[in-house]
Amino acid sequence: MTLHVYNTQTKKRESFRPLRDKKVNMYVCGPTVYNYIHIGNARVFVFFDVVRRYLEYKGYEVTYVQNFTDVDDRLIETAQQEGTTVKELAERYIRAYFEDMDALGVKRADVHPKATEHIGEMVEGIRILLEKGYAYERDGDVYYRALKKEDYGKLSHQTLEELKAGARVEVNEKKESPLDFALWKKSKPGEISWDSPWGKGRPGWHIECSAMSKKYLGDTLDIHAGGMDLCFPHHENEIAQSEAWTGKPFARYWLHNGYIKMGNEKMSKSLGNIVRVVELREKYEPRALRYFLLSAHYRNPVSFSFETIHQIERGLERFDTAVTNLHHRMKTAEAGNAEPTVNKRLSELTREFEAAMDDDLNTANAISVLYDAVRFANETVARSVVPRGTLAAILGWLRQFGGEILGLVVDGEEESLEAEIEALIEERQQARAARDFKRADAIRDRLAERGIILEDTPQGVRWRRK
Question: Coiled-coil segments, which residues (predicted)?
Fold first, then answer.
């Protein structure tokens, strides 16, 4: 089956075909590291983590780059307020970002470039844009001449008047047009700065991603992705400056995820209605947050609520129970290969999963297929006779599609109980055999006090932690 994705630039659903047959260059805009990320930010990183995993499952060699913006006005202002340096502030929140992402099961990118470590590449790009007439210098500042690029606005599909109205710019007499944007900013006294042919300063926001993506992935990307809020002006400006710089198309496929809503409003720092991932991790299992972020089609908005996360936590228990039951049953199952009927059903589930993901990366439908697989696992485990190969095949399917791709299924062998608890379980079994149910119940209560829940099944006693 062929993967189809919705391309923001063409506003069409297109077959995915990278520049090079089985190699994919993928760039996802990372965070500006002046604070902890909120659950709305996390949607970008969790969803495109799944995209990367799915592309790898389909046999592509993916080079994945995600940057850190570690210098901008907000970093400078926050560092001044806290009496620290921009570098120290950025490093603190980069560490916090990785802690959040590790908890959410997001794999590290192949490269995590920092803006401050690529000033030379940005200066070179700006120099070329000046030479080509796409940029101009005014008193130490350098601006991109937006209207020189005839197709400016092709990503956001807006007229020049709409672009001007939507441009988040202050009145600036240095600019030839309100749509022009800063490539280089002259530094103010006491601000962090770097030397350049135009004097001391620092790069504008948009030039960072153009320079870093070019360095690590080349002139033309297969996939450029991020939140819908980046479509304009950030990604629009990236296209303009990158294509003027190289003379080549900047990205073949533009993918943008929708907003997280709090009530009826978009979640954003400016509105003050954010919920930070670090705080949510203290209350909920991180897998529940990951599940929530994948539970709707990525281009659709999704409403956040604490009750939703709580319900998802309970739903995840179904995945965990299915995996635990499979491991438990395998201990007593007879030897034998997977049954043909089971292999057939797993093949059907694979086709259904791929159909969901190939249809513009529909993780919501893929999760529905995962639930079908869990139901099939439970029905199989309940049978009186099941060969070990059948159980292993189902477990392998859940591990691959629910775990390796979606990151929602954890396949861990049952934990080893301490010797004392094992002895108590054995003692309870002996008491039950002797019909000493009072003693058996007392042992069950004692284990419950220690957070161990016993479940009597036809295949023997199974335990789990509260």
Answer: 414-441
pTM value is 0.88
Token digits for 127? 């120099």
Look at residue 170 in the predicted model and tell me its pLDDT.
Answer: 56
Grouping H, G, I as helix, E, B as strand and the rest as coil, residue 61 is strand
Q: Is 234 annotated as a binding residue?
A: yes
DSSP, collapsed to helix, strand or coil, labels residue 359 as strand
Does the annotation list 209 as a binding residue? yes
d(CA 448, CA 430): 18
Query: Residue 280: which residues within 8 A CB-CB, separation 6 or more?
Result: 39, 289, 309
Beta bridge partners, 261, equal: 266, 303
- How many Cβ atoms are within 10 Å of 190's Cβ, its own excluded? 8
Residue 330 burial (CB count, 10 A): 17
What is the DSSP annotation of 156-194?
A: TT--HHHHHHH------TT-SSTT-EEEEEEPPTTS--B
- What is the fold of 4-133+152-168+202-302? Rossmann fold (3.40.50)
Q: What is the pLDDT of residues 230-281, one digit of tens each?
A: 999 999 999 999 999 999 999 999 999 999 998 778 777 777 788 999 999 9
- pLDDT over 70 for what percent of the chain? 95
What is the third-level CATH fold of 314-405? Four Helix Bundle (Hemerythrin (Met), subunit A) (1.20.120)
β-strand pairing of 260-262 with 302-303: parallel
Q: For residues 329, 103, 118 and 223, what is the CA-based torsion angle, rounded to 10 degrees?
A: 50
What letter does residue 229 receive in the DSSP assignment? G
Pairing state between β 141-144 and 135-138:
antiparallel
Q: Which of 46, 23, 183, 31 is nearest to 101 (CA)?
A: 46
**Does the annotation flag 238 for ligand binding?**
yes
Residues 369 and 447: their CA atoms lie apart, in Å, by 36
Task: Work out the mean pLDDT of the chain and round it to a whole number.
Answer: 93
Q: Is the peptide bond before 340 cis (omega within 30 degrees of 0)?
A: no
Q: How many helices (H) and strands (E) does the chain have?
A: 15, 15
Is residue 100 within 8 A of residue 36, CB to CB? The reply is yes
